[in-house]
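Researcher: Re-running this chain for the archive, since the previous output was lost when a drive failed. Same request as before.
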Amino acid sequence: MAETLDNLSDESLMERIQKHDHRAFSCLVERRSDMFYAAAYRMVMNRQEAEDIVQEAFLKLWDKPKSWKSGNGAKFTTWFYRIVMNISLDKLRRQKNGNGDVDQDLIDQMASGDMAQDRELEINEEQKALDRALKTLPENQLMALNLCFYEEMSNKEAADIMGIGVKALESLLMRAKSGIKNYLHREGILDRGEVA
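Model: Regenerated structure tokens:
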């Protein structure tokens, strides 16, 4: 009789992983890969890099499962976000001297003919401008923005992941929003009234 792991919490799976349970590791990877991929992608804005980040993070987890401490009600996701964000920051630092990568999703959509409408192209141009604005932000502002807005974490959770206080996080968010607004204004996006 095979035991099902699907009903176990992430934390319970981690306890099993610490005992080298391959099935628990597979279950956790399957359960959480998409969530952490999305977070990594919004940091590096490159599909392959994001996949590599998540794979590297899970490999680190498997190699050193005891680095997660179950005491004090520690949530697995909060702990693992920190790992994913740190790897993402390392990748960003190595990419700083480049111009960024082409958005392969956009190329794929255009090649398949799915984006024939003018409005869709216009929205896509706005998204590309926003992506360029995000790339101009300092790493800590980008991380704060991603965790709070895209990952929909509370300020407290995001601050814990970043290892800073809530007030410092709020300051980062305010500066990030201001930086994006200024960039979009310079690009002429805000002047058209299409982005508020």
